[in-house]
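User: If you would, consider this record:
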Amino acid sequence: MKTEEHFRIGSVLKTKGLKGEMVMYVDFDDIEKIKFNSVFIEIAGKLVPYFISSVKYLQNNQAYLNLEDVDTVEKAALLAKKDIYLPNKLKPKKKKEEFTLKDLKGFLVVDETHGELGEIDDIVEYPQQLIASVYFNNKEVLFPLNVEIIKGIDVEGEEVYVDLPDGLLDIYLEG
């Protein structure tokens, strides 16, 4: 199974109790509206399928998760800190007004000075801002997603137009 054919819904935070129950962090709101009876957990770079025994959604983007064949704290502990995925066909469609900066993952970045930089490979959330990761000239380039840098977003064409600060690319390319 390839991660490109799936989308991340969250991750296993830790075990709960002695019978294999786990605490799951959920990446986005309204996950309870998606109907699914199995998940894929990333283990050693591969997606491994698991059937769900039960899932109980809590507030604060958390849920209690029980998987079939994960019936001891030891088995559950092996899945702690692992990402959880669902097939792309289950991904809810967003309305334009629900679009957020986290949805820029996969968009092509076009800089005013340097032209096309590449697709946004990852978006990491830090306490004060979101940081985008792009591979340009085989080097990872990180830049904040904020109003000073983003000059426009073409949602339909999946492009984001930026004006990176002078010298930012040079820092990554010189190393």
